[in-house]
Amino acid sequence: MTGKKTYWLLIIIFLFLIHLIILRSSSSVTLNKNQEINFKIIYQGAGYYFIKNGTQTFYLSTQETFHLDDNVWAYGNFTKIKAAINIYEFNQAKWLQGQGITWQFNLTKITSQKASQGLRAIIQHYLLADENNIDFIQLIFFGVKTKGASELYEKFVQLGIIHLLVISGFHINLFFWIINTICCKIFCFKYTFLLSFLIVFFYIYLLNFNLASLRAGIFMFLFTLKNKLAWDKISKTMIWTMTLLLVLALKPYAFLNSGFTFGFVISYVLIVIQLRLQHLVLFKKILIYNLIIFLVSWILTAYYNYAINFTSILVTIILTPFIELTYLFSFMIIFIKPLHIIYQWLFFVLNNFSEVLLKINVVWHTGAFNFWLVWSYYGLLIIAYLNWGYFQKLIMLGVLFFSIILIFLNWMASPRYSLTMLNVGNGQTIVITDKLNFKTVLFDVGVEIGKSKNLVRDYLKWQGINFINAVFISHYHLDHYNNLSQVKTNFYLGEIIDNQTLGDYWKFGALGFLILHKTVGAENENSNSLVVLATINHYHLLLTGDITKEEELKMLDLSLPQIDFLQVAHHGSKTSSHISFLKKIKPKICFISDGPHKKILAPETLKNLHSVGCQNYETNGQQNVQVEFFDNFKTKVINF
Q: What is the phi/psi pair of residue 555, to 5°?
């Protein structure tokens, strides 16, 4: 019997691979420089769309306004979607692969546009015509994060409860229960539930069959069918497997999606443990369910997001009833426009309640994990499950101890003393760490205008940094401080030091910072830049912001040591790096934060640096550069 099961499993896998190959081969595009195509809008996000041309789906980023199911004729060209440059930032290419999209259409000119007259488009136009509540309706019913709802969405992300929104399919069970209750009151026949499911799947159709809702809908349909038709030989595990195969048949690239992994892992765990917990009272059952989900999912969260939310269990228990009531009221009044005023009240309460919960939110950034550590952890969990009886407590304590060791080793794997200049284009962020003393200091926290506001935050999470002792802001140009708000929101921040802060010297562990230059009110804001002499153990580092040549010459009379590391001022611009100043400090290693097009970097600056024998390293908009400091007067520069 086992042989037959294996045989059928191999056939299913083989057919799936053939299906994937056929889809891949049909996804070729003609890369003409400019061509006219006809496409249909199949999904709309905040500033982007998924469009379909024939059997192929593409990504479109544009400020043009389209609506779901619109037909558009336009000129443009195709380009391959590029992977993220920094390994720690959001990888749009990987996310789109999970949607089966690898090419982007770059729109140059619209020649014609025809609004869809289909049922889905008509319903969405009707619902989204309510300008006062469009943001809430988009978020609650369609899982689309608009600008107006982005604050609430981000709060759910920080609280670790984003799964309570539409994007996880959480609400499908509630929607089915409401519809089925109504249908059973009106129609009294054996297969009323089929009518209810038709309505549910029509809603999933309105969601354009998004992955999470499709998975939830299929599983619930098969499970209800099993109960109604008394299919005793079909277990929940078999239904889970059938759901998995059906989802992959409909969305073959879904396995590349982290949400797919989370959804199926958690649902399988709940199926496995359900029989063991069915004798417990409701509250105790909910608590244990959430504890087990946390125990199973934390390492996946750490692997994908580099963070663990320790209060997500409590917040989920507190907010779930309110979210369910929100969905309940929303489904009941969605087509009754005069009652939409309730949405404003729900949004207000939900937004402020989330704000209060953020006060008790406890998040720990773990840093990046190797995948073998994930497998090792799950191996221990499986052993714990198989030995549920006598050895249960001992093994579970072992799992928790191993988890703590994993987090600690992950943190200590990087060098003790290091300085990292982040790849932020023509902006600047420098991270200085003393790992043994758990000290982290930032010098500037900005990115090139137009780049992601999360770049600095994502790097710090990727490194497993939680406490930032101080942030030095050299001067107030946006490209030197525009990520500060994200740092303040996501990390425990000690103090912010700028050119108006009292004091000239700070020490954090083995890190010392002496202010050499401090000016306020200069006409040229670059002249106000802090110049800081930092010490890491016995190494000397000079951090200069965007200081000008005039200010550099004023510092020639200072008694300065030879500089082991120099942050080249003003991104290598010709306005800085005077040759006399460089000859005085004689830097050994020089880092330049610049963009890929080198709009600011001056040949004159490079020549001056070369003449004093400094080893130059640039971010180039392509790489991060890091210098590691060792106790034996040796340094090592790495790129990543």
A: -95, 5
